[in-house]
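chain below, 69 aa
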Amino acid sequence: MPRLELDPNFTDPDAFYAALTELHRECSEAESERINARLILLLANHVGDQQVLEEALAIAGQAEKPSDK
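prediction:
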């Protein structure tokens, strides 16, 4: 059964980060949200395995949420 890869697996994380931030440069918040949604769907399609995707969703859902102070 495939598992979500949690160990660093980027060939060049700095290049990916630079490309991602450049993609969002000068975008409105709504445009950035649409880009992120499309990116998520493209990568989910690439992964393809439902169990791996559900594991990723569960881990992402555990992220801390800002407090309402």
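The radius of gyration is 14 Å. The chain has three helices and no strands.
thats it, cya
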